[in-house]
Write a structure and sequence with these properties.
With about 450 residues, the protein is α+β, with helices and mostly antiparallel strands. Helix content is about 50%, strand content about 20%. The chain has three domains: about 1-170 and about 425-454, Triger factor/SurA peptide-binding fold; about 175-200 and about 310-410; about 200-305, Chitinase A, domain 3 (Roll). The chain has helices at about 1-5, 10-15, 15-25, 50-70, 75-100, 105-115, 130-140, 140-165, 170-180, 200-210, 230-245, 265-275, 305-335, 340-345, 365-370, 375-385, 410-445, and strands spanning about 45, 50, 120, 125, 185-195, 215-225, 255, 280-285, 290-305, 350-360, 385, 390-395, 395-405, 445-450. Residues about 1-35 have low confidence and may be disordered. Keywords: Cell membrane, Chaperone, Coiled coil, Isomerase, Membrane, Transmembrane, Transmembrane helix.
């Protein structure tokens, strides 16, 4: 097996790692694929279909994980779908290449992994009923479950082999540490746009975005009350509601129901109201006094009052205006050259400007204090001494002038090297993978069924 790897192109072989990292950590890069051809599945990778069952199985796992963390996924479900599909495509690409290289997890290995999964064990022993129940709830077959595990295990084998042959020298570690853990002396120019928001702008935003300020959410319902002596009439109304036909009978209750509110409806009807949803729109309830036909028309949000959210909206609109103006300022400054921060500050209009001293400040401290993104920090490290390009940091524009760079002391270096070295190794390894993985994608023929991403 090792001979096969040595005979193959290193460029392709190392590509296995990225998808394994994706599968293990849930991180997924957004990739632009070729969208072409009509396909029956969710996607096709070099002629191999990715089925809806495999796709939805992975989607459900991600959604369940996010929901367990208390996150509302409704707003970014499309993003989840896109990222999960990219993940599966990467896994399929890497698995196909592994098979060409003669590397493939054995069926016995897959079965051993399944019986050792804690979720399928009872009192320390494998329980097949737990596995069967899991497959039923997940909506996948045993065959598909084994196929997914086999692909993951295969990629895992390649990762282990490649990782074993990877190393980073002490010189590389020293060079990186000196860059990232050096302190700097200099100045930073902070430019914040000055903006105003009118009462009219705030009111207009509120009217157009009331749904964003929902204070409560209720159910829009209709309740028909029919005497017990008119059972046939009650059944006719139930049939009409179920088939979507218009009901001539005047509703006993027609309005918004909020859970927990006091109503004159019987407790049996209240219980039915709480059970109503898009999947269960009708309830037929019999009490000692009457029949009740309860119909769910949908949900409706009740927004907070304007006065309650006025200051919040004002801050939102201010931030939007500030970001827009900051972007314009940044673009203008990029076209100009200046010899000092004071000279730059004089050119700024409609914004507050301030110059702060930087005394023995670490790059990490600079990043946290001024909300500078990581890529800009990397550019500052690379540039070294001098005046930086203008940096966009939220609603501000920053310009950094570095006069002196102080490397970490010997004592500080020895203190941090042990804990930081593994992170540096992982980062270097990932940097190599990021560069190489694109080649495997470029060589593939990938088709995506866009309907599944809508």
């Amino acid at each position: 097996m090792f001979t096969k790897i040595q005979e193959s192109k290193w460029l392709k072989a190392i590509l296995f790692i990225t998808t394994f990292a994706f599968v293990g950590t849930g991180f997924v890069a957004l990739i632009v694929y070729k969208l072409s051809g009509e396909i029956s599945g969710v996607a096709q990778v070099n002629g191999i279909d990715i089925t809806p069952q495999e796709f939805m199985y992975e989607v459900n796992k991600v959604e369940a994980q996010l929901q367990n963390q208390g996150q509302d996924i409704s707003a970014f479900r499309k993003i989840i779908y896109s990222q999960v599909l990219n993940n599966i495509i990467d896994r399929e690409l890497l698995y196909q290449f592994a098979k060409k290289e003669g590397i493939d997890a054995k069926d016995d290995e897959v079965k051993m992994v399944i019986v050792s999964i804690p979720a399928f064990q009872k009192n320390g022993k494998f329980d097949q009923n737990l596995l069967i129940n899991y497959l039923k709830s997940a909506g996948i077959s045993m065959q598909l479950f084994e196929e997914i595990l086999k692909k993951q295990l295969t990629v895992g084998h390649i990762v282990s082999m490649l990782k074993a042959g990877f190393y980073i020298t002490d010189y590389e570690v020293k060079t990186i540490l000196e860059k990232y853990f050096s302190t700097i002396n200099g100045e930073i120019l902070i430019i914040k746009p000055t903006v105003k928001v009118s009462e009219k702008e705030i009111k207009d935003y509120y009217e157009k975005n009331k749904d964003k300020f929902a204070e409560k959410e209720g159910k829009k319902i209709k309740v028909y009350k029919i005497p017990l002596s008119e059972k046939e009439k009650a059944q006719q109304i139930f049939t009409s509601l179920k088939s979507g036909k218009k009901v001539e009978e005047k509703a006993y209750f027609d309005g918004l129901y909020l859970k927990g509110e006091t109503t004159n409806l019987p407790k049996e009807v209240i219980k039915a109201l709480n059970n109503l949803s898009e999947n269960s729109k009708i309830e037929f309830v019999k009490t000692k006094d009457a029949f009740y036909l309860v119909y769910f028309e949908g949900t409706k949000s009740i927004p907070a009052s304007f006065d309650k959210v006025k200051s919040k909206i004002e801050n939102i609109l201010k931030a939007e205006k500030e970001r827009k103006i900051a972007k314009d300022i940044k673009q203008k400054l990029e076209k100009e050259k200046s010899s000092s921060l004071e000279e730059i500050a004089k050119k700024i209009k409609n914004a507050s400007v301030k110059i702060e001293k930087l005394n023995n400040v670490k790059y990490t401290q600079l990043q946290i204090k001024y909300f500078i993104n990581l890529e800009d920090i990397k550019d500052l490290i690379k540039k070294g001494k001098g005046i930086s390009k203008p940096l966009l940091a939220g609603n501000k524009v920053l310009v950094v002038k570095i006069d002196k760079i102080n490397p970490p002391s010997k004592e500080e270096y020895e203190k941090i090297v042990k804990s930081i070295k593994p992170q540096i190794e992982n980062q270097k390894f990932q940097d190599i993978i990021d560069m190489l993985v694109n080649k495997l994608r470029d060589e593939a023929e990938i088709k995506i069924n866009k309907r599944y991403l809508q």
